[in-house]
Amino acid sequence: MKTYFMIQEKIKPAWIQEMVIKANEFEKCQIYLECNALRINAKSQLSMSLLNGMQGVCCVSAHGENSRTAVDALRSLGTKVLN
Predict the structure, then answer these.
(1) Is the CB of residue 48 less than 8 Å from the CB of residue 33?
(2) Domain ranges across the chain
(3) Using alpha carbons only, what angle is made at residue 22 by residues 11 and 73, rounded to the nearest 5 degrees?
(4) φ, ψ of residue 53 in degrees (nearest 5)
(5) Average pLDDT over residues 61-67
(6) Contact 42, 24 (CB under 8 A)
(7) Are 32 and 71 in contact (CB under 8 A)?
(8) Is a pLDDT exceeding 90 seen at residue 83?
């Protein structure tokens, strides 16, 4: 399962923290966030911190149990950056 969204503002640490917390709610899923040619484990705070200050098109992909729910939840959080 995969979805795309646009981040027009620079990614902030608080947003990264929210995304990591949400991704870790899905224990039986492998979840990755791709942004500007980086493919990152969305469950890892250290890996996700590489996104700090980036903007552009991002892709959330998930494999495993409840992957559709995971992708939808992370896309929903991802688009909050636009507000």
Answers:
(1) yes
(2) 2-82
(3) 85
(4) 85, -5
(5) 95
(6) no
(7) no
(8) no
Amino acid at 62: A
Q: Would the pLDDT of 22 be above 90?
A: yes
Amino acid present at 22: K
> Residue 8 has which token pair?
């027009």
Per the DSSP assignment, residues forming a β-bridge with 39 are: 34
Residue 80: what pLDDT? 77
Which CATH class for the 2-82 domain?
A: alpha beta
Show the 3-state SS of 4-44. Answer: EEEECCCCCHHHHHHHHHHHCCCCCEEEEEEECCEEEECCC
Handedness of CA 22, 77, 42, 52 (dihedral sign): negative
